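Example protein was shown:

_____
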Amino acid sequence: MPLAALSAALVANAGLDRDASYGPEERDILSAEKGRAAWDAIRAWPGYAPTPLRRLAPIAAEAGVAELLYKDEGHRFGLRSFKALGGAYAVERLARQHGADGLTVACATDGNHGRAVAWGARKAGVKAVIFVHEGVSPGRAEAIAALGAEVVRAGRTYDDSVRLCADAGRQNGWQIVSDTSWPGYEEAPKTVMQGYVVMVGEALAAGARPSHIFVQGGVGGLAAAVLSWLWETQGAARPVFVVVEPETAACLFASAKVGAPTSVGGDLATIMAGLSCGEPSLLAWRILARGADAFMTIPDGAAAETMRDLADLGVVGGESGVAGLAGFRLAAADPQLRTALRLDASSRVLVFGTEGATDPDVYARIVGRSAEDVAGARSSRIAEVA
């Protein structure tokens, strides 16, 4: 369906106080100091390089803004997603704390986080057990197994798998490396989120100076990580910050509407598989509840159309990876949302392309071309920011 025929829903954050300082409670979860430490550690890994920051001039012109930058995570450490920055970093920290001998790490995943944990486990020389729910595609499960992890298919949804993995971890003495948190379980998710900060650090180091950021939701870990760095280092002068979720799996949007962490039910079906989450991370929510400007939901059609439009420019964006960009485009095309978010011709927008073709078959079905064909035809209209 053409993007012009689609619409988004927006809720302003009633709990926002842009003048509030980033205080001790927030720094206990995420801090610039720990973010720099994570960046130093990850920078030392073999194969590290900052991912491209692409200037999407054609889409910026269509949307009527001055600049649109796309942080392209499609090749991060060969895993095709940003998740290595969190999952593998947390595994490395655990292996140093506990020793590699006899250590087993485990997590639940929609695909990308489990792949990162499996990769980190192989790198650290420890065992990994990864729980995938029934909605995880065979291609994503196979990519995890190819890294040497034991893959356990259990649960109807991601949230089911999280609980089943936690139960198995307690019974077997595994170290759980989750990207979400719950009462009594916070330390590993803090480390995972701290690794995600590397993306925004790289983007700013490359010259990004956004007035607006649109970022994917999920359980909220990525969004909280990006916001934390900007809030702590820029205070009230930070960009307008918008969290984007699939309309069928919008736990953060629901939480913003009532002003408290809120779960959503149903099958959470969406092509944006990495964002198919019904329960927010309590840690992430503590930061988003006070610091995010707005939350929005988008239909699957917006993600699919954005994938195809990026492909026409020679950029490979996966289903979950384009959610922030799709949300921005819908907001820019809607006069009411445009006004509410203060988008205008002077706006400079940053989005995070958090995954490439993490399941090549799914990507090809949506786009109509393989990721290799798309990447081989990159448009000269797409510049990489120095």
User: Anything to note?
Assistant: The longest helix spans residues 187-205. The chain is about 45% helix and 15% strand. The first strand starts at residue 9 and ends at 12.
